[in-house]
Design a protein that fits this description.
It is built from 10 helices and 51 strands. The protein starts with 7 loop residues before the first helix and ends with a strand. Helix 2 crosses helix 3.
Length: about 800
C-alpha cells in the first residue's frame, strides 16, 4: 500500500469508497437472503506480497493455494507495527473468504482485517473470532489482509483465511438500500468522534486473564566498573604453533591408561550442594530414584534418523591438552558457539575450533592456555596453577565476537583452596576465533556481601542488543553454602571494542522466594528481534531451588539496558512468578550393563554405576525468539508404564513488560520421557522462526549413554526422539566408584548446549560414551550435530 499505519482507516481511499464499503457490509450482514449472484474472483495467493512495517510478521500459504495463515509482528520493540499481505485484482468481481483470528495477547493490542478501496477494515482484535466475508472488487484494485500490533510484544495476532471457490451472493437488491444509508451514517459519526481506528480504541481495555502479573520484586544494581578489566591478549594460533606435543601419541595413551596422577571432580561447590541437590542415596550409598506424581506421554525413539555430526572433545583430548599438564575431570560440561563458518567447543578445561564441516582448525588447547594462565598442574614440578571450571562459550552476532568464560576458586601451589575467586572472560578481538583474544579478569570474591568470601558458581552467559549478561550462584568459599545469586550486566559495545574496563553492573539477589538461584539469561538467535522497548530488555528465568518439587517458574526482566554504555546506567531488574506444570528433583539414571575396565580394576571391583540425574531442577537453557521464551529443565517423571525415570520438562512462555508490569502467558508445556529409560540435561535452541530442537543424553537399560534429540516449535510439541550418535559402553568414570567421595553416583555433565545460526540451523552438543582410546579415570566424549528445520 502507498500509505502505512493505522491512519489509512481515514486517510486512505476515497470518501465514496468508504460510504460504499459500509453500505455493502451492512447489506451483506443484515439481509444476505436478498443478495444476487455475481462473478467470483479466485485470487492467486502466491502473487500477493508480504510487507512489514515495524514488524516481523510472516505468511504461510497452504499447498492448495487457496488458504493462508498471516502472523503479525512480535519484535519486542514497543512500537506499533503492521503486517500486510496484498495484491492487485485482475478482474472485477466478488471475493469471498472464511476467516478466523486469535491472539494470546491482551484484548485490543493486536487486530486483523482486510483492505478495500484503500481502507483498513477491521475483522477482530485480540478476542478470537471467525466469520465469512464477501467483498466487491473492481478490476486492478488493490486488496489484501492485514494484522497490526500496538507494541510488538505479548504474542502476535494470527489471521487464518480460506478463499471460497463456490458461488457467493453479492449485489444487494433495492429492498436493502436503507442499510446502505445506515452504513453511511455510522461512518460519518465515527469519523467525527475519533481519528483512531477501532484497533486502537479497543486497546484501552486491559486484560485480567492468563497474562496478568502476580506480585513483583524489583532490584537495582551497583556499579562494579573497574573490577572486570582487560588483563592480556592471547593468540591461540601462536600457542598451537609453539607447543611441542598437543596430539595423543600411542605412548602417551598407554601411559594414561596405566595411571593418572590426579583425579578431580569439576567444581568444589557442587560436591556439597545442599539443600538444593540432596544426594539420591541411602544410608549405605544405595541409589534411590526420585519421586514424581506426573505421568508423561513417552516419546518414541527412532534409530535411523541420521543427521550431520562429528565427534567433539573427549576426556582424553582434555587430559592431553597443554602437553598433558591437565587433570582428570568429571563430569564433562559441553558448550558450543557457532557463527561465521566456525564452531568453538569448550568442555571442562579444553577448547577447540572447527569449521562447520567438522574439520579442526586448531589442536586442542587447555583453557589455562586460552586465558594465558599457568598449567592446571605442571607435572614436571607437581605445582598447581589456577583451576578454571564451568566452561561456557558464546557468539554474539551483532558485534561478531566470541566469548569463552570460566570461573575459578583460587588455589595455592599445592592445590589447596583459598578464600578467593576469579572470573575469566576471553573475548575475540575479531570475528575469527583462531586469531587474538582479549582476556578479561574479575575478582569475584565479593567480600562486601554478607556471607562471602564467595565463588561465582555455575555461570551462564547471554546477550541482548545492548549488553552481555553473566549470571552465577555465590557460594561461600569455606562451607560451600549458598549466599545469593548475582547477575553481571556489561556494555556489549565496550567489551566488543576491547575497552580496558567496560561498564559493568552487578545485581546481588538474596534468597527470598526460593527462585534466586541459577537465574538463566535468554539468548536471541540470529535474525530474531531483540526486545528493545523499555529502553532495552533482557529476560531471565529460574526455577524453585529450595524445594524438591514446584509448579511455578520465576520470570525476570532487566530493563533500560541501552543505558549500559552511558556514563551511569539506570538498570532495573523485575521479578514475577508464573504458574506452570509440576517439576521435581531428578533421581539417578540406571545404565545398560557392559564393560567397565576402570571399575573392574579397582579393589574391590566397582559395580555398574548409576548416573546422577542432576542435583536440582535448574533451568538448563533459555532461548528468546518471536517474542517467546523457550526453556528446558530436568525433572523426575513417571513414564507411561508407571516407572519413575529421569526426564525433562519444556515450556514456551509469551512474556510482556508494559508500564512497569512484568507478566507472561504459558503457551505450551510438557515432559520429555522414554519408557523405562532416562533423559539427561535437555537443552533447547530455536531459530528466528521459532523452529528448533532439544538435545540430551539418552541412557538406561536399553541404551548406553547416547546423543539424542527431538524437534520443537511454537505450534507443535516435541516429536519422536532421534539418536544422533549411539553410545558403545557404560559410563565408567572415577566419580561413581567407592572409595571416591562422590560415589555411588557418577557425575554426568551439568549441561548440554544448543545454538541457532543465521541460516536457521540448530547446532547441538551433548556427552555420550564413544569408542576408541580413553584415559584411566574417565571415558566420556562429546558429539556435535546439526539439524536443519
Amino acid at each position: 500500500m502507498d500509505k502505512k499505519g493505522y491512519s489509512r482507516w481515514l486517510r486512505g481511499g476515497t470518501a465514496a469508497g468508504k460510504v460504499f464499503l459500509f453500505a455493502w457490509t451492512g447489506a451483506a450482514l443484515m439481509c444476505p437472503d436478498r443478495l444476487q449472484a455475481d462473478t467470483i474472483i479466485n485470487p492467486q495467493l502466491s502473487s500477493l506480497v508480504l510487507q512489514n512495517v515495524n514488524a516481523d510478521g510472516s505468511v504461510t500459504i497452504a499447498a492448495d493455494g487457496m488458504s493462508f495463515v498471516l502472523t503479525g509482528g512480535n519484535t519486542g520493540s514497543g512500537l506499533t507495527g503492521e503486517t500486510d499481505f496484498t495484491g492487485m485484482s485482475t478482474s472485477a468481481g466478488v471475493l469471498s473468504f472464511d476467516w478466523s483470528y486469535n491472539s494470546a495477547d491482551q484484548p485490543g493490542l493486536d487486530a486483523a482485517g482486510y483492505f478495500l478501496d484503500g481502507s483498513m477494515i477491521q475483522l477482530a482484535n485480540s478476542d478470537n473470532r471467525s466469520g465469512s466475508i464477501s467483498i466487491q472488487l473492481a478490476s486492478a484494485e488493490r486488496y489484501g489482509w492485514w494484522v497490526t500490533t500496538q507494541d510488538n510484544t505479548g504474542e502476535p495476532g494470527v489471521l487464518k483465511v480460506s478463499v471460497s471457490q463456490s458461488e457467493v451472493l453479492q449485489t444487494p437488491e433495492p429492498a436493502c438500500a436503507f442499510l446502505a444509508a445506515i452504513g453511511c451514517g455510522l461512518l460519518i459519526i465515527f469519523r467525527g468522534k475519533s481519528r483512531r481506528p477501532a484497533a486502537l480504541i479497543v486497546a484501552a481495555v486491559v486484560s485480567t486473564g492468563a497474562a496478568e502479573a502476580q506480585a513483583q520484586g524489583n532490584y537495582v544494581p551497583v556499579s562494579v566498573t573497574g573490577q572486570l578489566t582487560l588483563a592480556r591478549v592471547v593468540n591461540p594460533s601462536r600457542i598451537a604453533a609453539a607447543q611441542t606435543s598437543a596430539s595423543a601419541s600411542a605412548a602417551s595413551i598407554r601411559s594414561l591408561i596405566a595411571e593418572d596422577v590426579m583425579l578431580r571432580r569439576r567444581g568444589a561447590a557442587e560436591v556439597l550442594r545442599l539443600p538444593f541437590g540432596m544426594p539420591r542415596t541411602g544410608l549405605f550409598g544405595d541409589a534411590l530414584a526420585g519421586s514424581a506424581t506426573q505421568t508423561a506421554s513417552d516419546l518414541p525413539v527412532i534409530t535411523g534418523g541420521a543427521i550431520f555430526g562429528f565427534q567433539g572433545l573427549s576426556h582424553l583430548d582434555q587430559r592431553l591438552a597443554d602437553s598433558g599438564n591437565q587433570l582428570t575431570v568429571e563430569p564433562p560440561n559441553p558448550s558450543i558457539a557457532v557463527g561465521n563458518g566456525f564452531i568453538v567447543e569448550g568442555v571442562n578445561n579444553a577448547v577447540r575450533v572447527y569449521n562447520q564441516a567438522g574439520t579442526p582448525l586448531l589442536p586442542v588447547l587447555s583453557s589455562n592456555q586460552w586465558f594465558g594462565l599457568p598449567p592446571a598442574l605442571d607435572r614436571s614440578t607437581n605445582t598447581f596453577g589456577p583451576y578454571p571450571t564451568d566452561m561456557r562459550v558464546y557468539f554474539d552476532q551483532d558485534i561478531n565476537r566470541w566469548f569463552v568464560m570460566q570461573r575459578a576458586q583460587d588455589e595455592d601451589s599445592a592445590g589447596a583452596a583459598l578464600e578467593q575467586s576469579h572470573l575469566y572472560l576471553a573475548v575475540s578481538s575479531t570475528a575469527d576465533p583462531t586469531a587474538a583474544w582479549n582476556i578479561y579478569v574479575m575478582d569475584t570474591t565479593d567480600n562486601k556481601t554478607p556471607g562471602c568470601p564467595c565463588i561465582a558458581d555455575y555461570p551462564t552467559i547471554a546477550s541482548d542488543k545492548y549488553g552481555i549478561y553473566i549470571s552465577a550462584n555465590e557460594y561461600d568459599t569455606v562451607f560451600l553454602e549458598p549466599v545469593d545469586a548475582i547477575i553481571l550486566a556489561i556494555s556489549k559495545s565496550q567489551i566488543g571494542s576491547a575497552a580496558a574496563a567496560p561498564n559493568t553492573y552487578q545485581f546481588n539477589i538474596p534468597r527470598a522466594t526460593g527462585y534466586e538461584f541459577s537465574i538463566h539469561p535468554a539468548t536471541t538467535p540470529p535474525g530474531a528481534s531483540n526486545f528493545v522497548a523499555a529502553g532495552g530488555l533482557e529476560y531471565f528465568v529460574s526455577t524453585q531451588a529450595f524445594s524438591a518439587q514446584d509448579s511455578n517458574v520465576s520470570l525476570w526482566a532487566m530493563t533500560n539496558t541501552a543505558s549500559l554504555s552511558a556514563s551511569s546506567a539506570s538498570l532495573l531488574l523485575t521479578q514475577t512468578i508464573i504458574p506452570t506444570e509440576w517439576y521435581y528433583y531428578p533421581g539417578v539414571a540406571s545404565q545398560r550393563p557392559g564393560p567397565i575396565p576402570y571399575g573392574a580394576s579397582l579393589t574391590p571391583p566397582g559395580q555398574l554405576e548409576y548416573i546422577d540425574g542432576n542435583p536440582d531442577s535448574r533451568v538448563q537453557s533459555l532461548s528468546y525468539a518471536g517474542g517467546r521464551l523457550f526453556l528446558t529443565l530436568p525433572s523426575q517423571v513417571t513414564d507411561s508404564a508407571g516407572n519413575s525415570v529421569v526426564g525433562g520438562a519444556y515450556m514456551i512462555l509469551s512474556p510482556t513488560y508494559r508500564s512497569g508490569t512484568l507478566a507472561a502467558t504459558l503457551l505450551q508445556q510438557g515432559y520429555l520421557s522414554v519408557t523405562n529409560n532416562h533423559i539427561l540435561r535437555p537443552a533447547v535452541a530455536v531459530n528466528a522462526s521459532g523452529e528448533g530442537a532439544i538435545v540430551f543424553t539418552l541412557v538406561g537399560p536399553d541404551y548406553y549413554p547416547s546423543v539424542a534429540w527431538t524437534t520443537i516449535d511454537v505450534k507443535n510439541p516435541p516429536g519422536a526422539i532421534q539418536i544422533a550418535a549411539p553410545g558403545v559402553a557404560p559410563e565408567d568414570g572415577f566419580t561413581g566408584y567407592r572409595p571416591s567421595p562422590f560415589a555411588p553416583n557418577a557425575r554426568w555433565g551439568d549441561y548440554s548446549t544448543a545454538r541457532a545460526t543465521s541460516d536457521g540451523s540448530i547446532w547441538m552438543v551433548t556427552e555420550y560414551i564413544p569408542g576408541g582410546p580413553r584415559s584411566t579415570g574417565a571415558n566420556w566424549g562429546t558429539y556435535i550435530a546439526r539439524f536443519v528445520p
